[in-house]
Design goal:
Layout: E1 12-14, H1 28-58, H2 89-93, H3 97-119, E2 128-131, E3 135-138, E4 141-144, E5 150-152, E6 157-160, H4 163-170, H5 177-196, H6 198-208, H7 211-235, H8 244-254, H9 257-261, H10 278-291
Parallel strand pairs: 1-2, 2-6
Antiparallel strand pairs: 3-4, 5-6
Helix pairs in contact: 1-7, 3-5, 5-7, 5-8, 6-7, 7-10, 8-10
Bound molecules: zinc ion.
Zinc ion is lined by residues 186, 190, 222, 225, 271.
Length: 304
């Protein structure tokens, strides 16, 4: 996809090179609990992870997470971890090719969705793109590379360790720039769900749902984010290059739950559990691509 012109006014936060693990955890328990999160994620979805992270913060399981409940970061052990928030978008975006690609895709999605919201008379709020490596922080708790890219509704941040892009091609065999763009566009789709209230509705429903029902709702939420990614691509058709759609389809296939669960070792990606099968992910990405209409992304009524 020809995306080479990010808007310098996008919201970018950069936590890279901030001392890594120095700031994120209160003790050895953090690692153990973080290790459990993928399991919780697979059972209860991203909402479950958020709930657990909040409980962990409340009961002091993880130090240094002061930001989670809006109380500042008083317990942070180092001052190195101060994010270079928004101060220098250009240097963050040009740190390496992957950062540039992420900024370009993020910026494009930002513009596209702002226009769609405006057209529908809805108020748009821009999210932020947060780069981290090793251990970062988010409004939803620690950001760890092993979690893969994720969206945090609390601070409206799309969190990315760009090493995931390398992994997309090496581990998931999803090559090409569009595979990376799709990842950003999918996370942006979660931001759209936050703005539209879908996210909150699903979390509310999940509180009363059984585990199975909760997972089914997660799948619908994730497939809708895939569809929204397609809507974004459709709005930028003139920039698509030969092979892009196939790259997106390959990525959607590679990170489907059924495909992932066949892989036993390596990186765990909570945001890829309870996301639907490869076929479902491809189908909803395609639905967004072909219709270009967010109204066609209603994954909550009927068959998926
Ligand atoms: Zn997702």
């Amino acid at each position: 996809m020809r995306l080479d012109d990010y808007d310098p006014n996008i919201n970018v936060e950069d936590q890279r090179g901030s001392g890594g693990g120095g700031g994120g955890f209160g003790g050895g328990g953090g690692g153990l609990l973080m290790g459990l999160l993928p399991m919780i994620g697979s059972r209860f979805g991203c909402g479950g992870i958020v709930v657990v992270l909040i409980l962990m913060a409340v009961f002091g399981g993880m130090g240094g997470l002061g930001g989670l409940l809006g109380g500042g970061q008083t317990s942070a052990p180092t001052t190195q971890s101060e994010p270079r928030s928004g101060s220098d978008t250009k240097s963050s975006c040009s740190l390496n090719a992957e950062s540039k690609a992420a900024c370009n895709a993020f910026s494009s999605a930002d513009n596209t969705w702002e226009a769609i919201f405006q057209k529908n008379g809805q108020r748009f709020e821009a999210p932020k793109l947060v780069f981290f490596d090793g251990n970062g922080r988010s409004g939803c708790g620690a950001a760890q590379s092993a979690m893969g890219p994720f969206y945090c509704p609390t601070d409206q941040g799309i969190y990315l360790d760009t090493s995931f892009f390398n992994e997309l091609s090496t581990r998931f065999k999803a090559n090409g720039d569009f595979a990376q763009d799709y990842v950003i566009a999918h996370e942006f789709g979660h931001h759209i769900q936050k703005l539209l209230g879908t996210n909150a509705q699903v979390q509310q429903a999940q509180r009363q749902a059984s585990e199975t029902e909760g997972n089914a709702l997660s799948v619908r939420l994730e497939l809708q984010a895939d569809c929204y990614a397609g809507v974004w691509a459709a709005a930028n058709k003139t920039r698509l290059e030969a092979g892009d759609i196939q790259e997106g389809m390959t990525a959607a296939q590679a990170i489907g739950d059924d495909t992932l669960q066949k892989q036993s070792q390596g990186r765990v990606v909570p945001d890829s559990f309870t996301h639907g099968t490869s076929a479902q992910r491809q189908s909803w990405l395609k639905r967004g691509l072909e219709s270009g209409d967010p109204q066609q992304c209603d994954t909550f009524s009927g068959e998926i």
